[in-house]
Design brief:
299 residues; Multidrug-efflux Transporter Regulator, Chain: A, Domain 2; four-stranded antiparallel beta sheet; three-stranded antiparallel beta sheet; 11 helices
């Protein structure tokens, strides 16, 4: 039996040549219309079409949730209904509960019980905090020509689709949305340094499961000590605990970032030092072997 081999990456390999039109064609199935929510007084505003796209649902569902009382009514400006991140947060919660097998009737009963005896603004504020993105980094946009210029021959159809599946690039019509420009710039620097883009994406994919485990553990710790300790695991926070919890979640995000960054720096220092010492030990062993071989040769 021939043993399986891990994929090898070579910068000199000739990749599938792509042009901007070829990229567009390869991504047409996953591309969607551009989303242009409006920022207003620090909050996002959406039309009903934009809201449905952002929440990965349909306009029909949004209207149905409103009719059932699951979603607050929009602000009316003329004949147009304007939705905000409050509506988006509620839609995300509804969608996640539906994916877990609950019915709309179940969800309505839960939300009704959740709102009883609690300030609605506090509830909606907590929902927004919980469902908002962890990072406040603003996305950027790039054309397919700019993408080709950034990565050149490293960009193949397979690599491009891998980046899209990982969420680092989101096709929107004739352009790409980049949720994290910092990650894109970091990837570009690593590729310029000689690391193949395909290998880099594979490594990121393998690391994600570990990052997910760390995040789950941190969140579980917060819930266990700040919610379950007082209410158990079958009740929801009440009274002043609702806005207090929302405020704490906002504070804990930079705290978690600092902890993870500090630990990652410590582990990287340790790993880099180990690699260096291991390499030096290998070189010394090789030199000793060469000297021994020279001593053993007949003169």
């Amino acid at each position: 039996m021939v043993p399986s081999r891990k994929p090898r990456y070579h910068r000199c390999m000739k990749p599938t040549q792509l042009t901007p039109s070829a990229i567009l064609q390869s991504l047409r199935k996953v591309a969607r219309a551009p989303e242009t929510p409006v920022e207003h007084s620090g909050r996002k505003e959406f039309t009903i079409d934009e809201l449905a796209r952002e929440a990965s649902t349909t306009v029909r569902n949004v209207r149905a949730y409103q009719d059932r009382g699951l979603l607050p009514p929009p602000e009316k400006r003329g004949r147009t209904g304007i939705y905000t991140d409050v509506h988006l947060a509620r839609l995300k919660i509804i969608g996640q509960l539906l994916n877990r097998g609950f019915t709309l009737a179940n969800i309505r009963d839960l939300l009704t019980a959740w709102e009883q005896g609690r300030d609605l603004n506090d509830i909606l504020g907590l929902e927004v905090v919980v469902t908002s993105p962890w990072s406040d980094e603003a996305p950027s946009y790039m054309s397919y020509e700019e993408l080709l210029e950034a990565f050149g021959d490293e960009l193949t159809q397979e690599v491009l689709l891998k980046a899209v599946n990982l969420g680092y690039m989101i096709p929107e019509g004739n352009r790409l949305r980049v949720p994290s420009p910092r990650i894109l710039n970091a990837g570009r620097e690593l590729v310029d340094a000689g690391i193949p883009l395909d290998a880099l994406l594979d490594e990121v994919n393998s690391v994600r499961s570990e990052v997910d485990r760390i995040a789950d553990g941190f969140v579980r710790m917060v819930v266990t000590h700040l919610v379950d300790a007082k209410y158990g695991d079958k009740e929801l926070p009440r009274g002043d605990d609702v806005p207090r919890l929302a405020q704490f979640i906002q504070r804990v995000r930079p705290i978690a970032d600092m902890v993870v960054s500090a630990e990652l720096a410590r582990i990287l220092d340790k790993a880099i030092n180990k690699v260096l010492v291991d390499r030096l030990a290998t070189v010394l062993t090789h030199l000793e072997a060469q000297e021994q071989q020279g001593d053993d040769e007949p003169t």
